[in-house]
Amino acid sequence: MKLTRKDKGELFAEAIVTGMIVYFFYLGSEIVFKQVLFYAFPNLKETIWGLKLATNIYSFKNYALFFVGLLTIIVIIWRLKRRIKQMQLNHIIEDLHYIAQGHYEHRIPFALKGDMGKVVESIHTLVSSTVDAMEEERAIEKSKDELITNVSHDIRTPLTSIIGYLGLIEDKQYKNEEELLAYTHVAYLKAKQMSLLVEDLFEYTKVRQRSTPLTITKFNLVQLLEQLEVEFQMDAEQKGVTFNLEVSDLEIFIEADAEKLVRVFNNLLSNALKYGKDATLLEIKAQKFDEQVMISVSNNGAAIPENSLKMLFERFYRVETSRSTETGGTGLGLAIAQSIVELHDGTIHAQSNEKKTAFIIYLPIKSKEILKN
């Protein structure tokens, strides 16, 4: 700890006072000793033996002075050390008050050893964890505000259309039954759009919780992927896209929640067909390793920009920024997919270049939930 001028002055005064106290104690002890000695032997000064004894006493005084001087130095050092520790504690308290006033970036600017050093280290750890908790809380609040804003925007648009068309019907502002059916059809589509958003939002909030229960079963992943291939084959053909499934083994058994994984693959395949601009090939690959399986869903369409690639799994994020429902969807699909994969202790990431855009998933072969049971 760097001592201030005031601290140095206090230490100097402490040393002077301590030295004077020891010296006066010595003088008082010497006077008392002489009085007791001569009171016990009143004729001591008048005898030869008394003269010798007195001479020995005064000779001993030199040794006593040396001892007292050494003792004085030891006591001064001991008291100064205690005083310095007290100063350190006062500085720590001052720094704590300063931090408590909102200066959370401040740290106690000196290193200490022993117990005091552990206290300072604990204070720094506590302040850092408090700052992290506050930043996390701010991020959560910001995230909630963004969630409300995005949901409000996405619900308001179809809701406005529904109210508008139902208002026209209510006021009988239609020419014929055909126009009436057209209005009701638009209102129906907008209602379905709102329903999809609400369902995705509900699913997102549910799978974001690590405590969400999974229905773990053992199933053949290859068989599941083959079923998905059949389901998406027609859509792929209509868009002029070749669907290809490639697996390393005919049977790859894993322990997972099959229903939730279907949600993940449905989302990835739908995105690949919907947003894979100019794509001619949609490909699923599954490869088994020792303790995990890798599944990739890729297409050879236009590449995703680098700045968008890093944000794909953020909720409500869309590469297409107009938030059009024709191209943008709800913006929750990939965030839901990531949460489901993480619930299975797996990982998902995206890669994109001019040749291929791929979403790669790694899942453990065995579920920890079954292992615990």
TrEMBL record:
Membrane topology per record: Multi-pass membrane protein
Compartments where found: Cell membrane
Superkingdom as given in the UniProt entry: Bacteria
Keyword tRNA processing annotated: no
Record's keyword terms, sorted: ATP-binding, Cell membrane, Kinase, Membrane, Nucleotide-binding, Phosphoprotein, Transferase, Transmembrane, Transmembrane helix, Two-component regulatory system
Positions of transmembrane segments: 12-40, 60-80
The reaction(s) this protein catalyses: ATP + protein L-histidine = ADP + protein N-phospho-L-histidine
InterPro entries (UniProt xref): HATPase_C_sf, HATPase_dom, His_kinase_dom, HisK_dim/P_dom, HisK_dim/P_sf, HssS/ArlS-like, Sig_transdc_His_kin-like_C
Segments forming domain Histidine kinase: 150-367
Molecular function per GO: ATP binding; phosphorelay sensor kinase activity
PANTHER family: SENSOR HISTIDINE KINASE CPXA
Protein name from the UniProt record: histidine kinase
Organism: Isobaculum melis
